[in-house]
Specification:
This protein has about 375 residues and is of the alpha+beta class. Helices cover about 45% and strands about 15% of the residues. A 4-stranded mixed β-sheet has the order 1-4-5-8. A 4-stranded antiparallel β-sheet has the order 2-3-7-6, with no helix packed on it. A hairpin with a 2-residue loop joins strand 2 and strand 3. The two termini are about 40 Å apart. Bound molecules: flavin-adenine dinucleotide. Flavin-adenine dinucleotide (FAD) binds next to strand 1 and helix 11.
């Protein structure tokens, strides 16, 4: 991969902007947030995210007609690289910017674009993803949350679970069964539901890390306008799968830059503790570095302008590659930085949170099944 002079100019612009702006009230936010630390200084990170938005540094890849920069994939990678290099705080609006936004652009109506995209771009409305249920995780087509039309509204009843950041979200995109008696992917709809209403209850779930990044969400006669359905009523499965392909593909571009940062810091830690002289540790660090190069190349080759929706098997390969890599890095981190290390808390958190990587966005076993059927043409299990 080569950067053109225009790309380098873009890099200089991003770097300069971040240097000039991660100062004053925002200076102390460096390094705040991230996996397992979503609770950290949320309100200040929200303000920072809005500051980014005001300068046009959100939704970079969205087409200009939808308020984005229409940035090329390479430019987005450059942005994320510089963002990580500057140690800028984790963004709070990723679900809206990277999952719902692209889905709405692909499947939404013009009036929905007009209503929902600007507040996502400006980080005035935060989103969460209401897919999983106690009886529908890997087997997502078993969704049992129901919604029925009542006058001008959908009325929603059911329970979602593992809903990341629901406790701070203004809206939720909910996969619900809108055709009574329908089964599997048929009869589901993709609804946009406001969280701030009496029919919605959010209960945090405490995680291994000690923090509560995800939640249970209960819908008891919750309501949303009839118009707030993405795609045709009953056609939600198609839309939901497109969001999943984006989640497994394009949305990880920024994340893998964070991985590089972690690997660099862990390598520095190994030097500091002397572990870097251990041949087995050196071997594992070298392997981790190689793995990251593979992920980077595969990611760039996989996520194109179609945002990874074209070939779900490739998005699944990428998901398996990065989730395993990150989980292994978590294990290596604890080998290098034992309980006596000053950085122990950080590495322990990485170890614990990375256990979730092979689960969320679809578990490894499910990705294997997709690869087996879609890429290898094997019969369905
Ligand atoms: C940190 C985190 C954040 C999350 N955030 C969200 C969110 O914001 N919104 C949301 O909707 N969901 C979210 N999830 C939920 C996530 O998508 C589900 O946990 C995941 O899809 C697995 O579903 P499950 O937990 O019900 O496990 P199950 O489906 O019960 O699976 C249990 C085990 O059985 C295996 N298994 C299941 N079926 C098969 C099969 N057919 N063949 C082989 N093995 C199988 C699985 O691989 C897994 O190992 C999050 C999860 C985590 C960990």
């Amino acid at each position: 991969m080569r950067f053109t002079p225009q790309d380098e100019e873009f890099r200089a612009e991003v770097r300069e902007w971040l240097t000039a702006n991660l100062t004053g009230e925002f200076a102390g936010l460096r390094g705040a947030g991230g996996p397992g630390r979503e609770h950290e200084r949320h309100d200040e990170r929200l303000a920072w995210n809005q500051h980014l938005a005001a300068a046009g540094w959100t939704c970079l890849g969205w087409p200009a007609e939808h308020g984005g920069r229409g940035a090329s994939l390479i430019q987005q990678v450059i942005f994320y690289e510089e963002y990580a290099r500057a140690d800028a705080p984790a963004r709070v609006s990723i679900v809206g910017e990277e999952l719902l936004g692209p889905t709405l652009i692909a499947f939404g109506r013009p009036d929905q674009h007009e209503r929902f995209l600007p507040p996502i771009r400006a980080v005035r409305e935060l989103w969460c993803q209401g897919y999983s249920e106690p009886g529908a995780g890997s087997d997502l087509a078993s969704v049992a949350t129901r919604a029925a039309l009542d006058g001008d509204d959908w009325v929603i009843n059911g329970q979602k679970i593992w809903t990341s950041l629901a406790h701070v979200a203004d809206w939720c995109f909910v996969l619900a069964r809108t055709e009574a008696g329908s089964r599997r992917g048929g009869g589901l709809s993709y609804l946009l539901v406001p969280m701030d209403q009496p029919g919605v209850t959010v209960r945090p779930i405490r995680q291994l890390t000690g923090t509560a990044e995800f939640n249970e969400v209960f819908f008891d006669d919750a309501r949303t306008a009839a118009a707030n359905v993405v795609g045709a009523p009953g056609d939600g499965w198609r839309v939901a799968k497109a969001t999943l392909a984006i989640e497994r593909g394009a949305a990880m571009l920024g994340q893998q830059v964070g991985f590089r940062r972690e690997l660099e810091d862990l390598t520095a830690e190994a030097r500091r503790t002397g572990a870097a002289r251990d041949p087995l540790i050196r071997d594992q660090l070298a392997r981790a570095w190689i793995g990251l190069q593979v992920i980077r190349c595969y990611a760039l080759d996989t996520v194109g302008p179609d945002e990874g929706t074209a070939d779900p098997a490739r998005a699944s390969v990428l998901k398996v590659l990065w989730s395993r890599w990150h989980r292994d890095l978590g294990e290596l981190a604890l080998t290098i930085a034992g309980p006596d290390s000053p950085g122990y808390d950080r590495w322990r958190r990485l170890f614990l949170f990375s256990r979730a990587d092979t689960i969320y966005g679809g578990s490894d076993e499910i990705q294997h099944d997709i690869i087996a059927t879609r890429a290898l043409g094997l019969p369905r299990s």
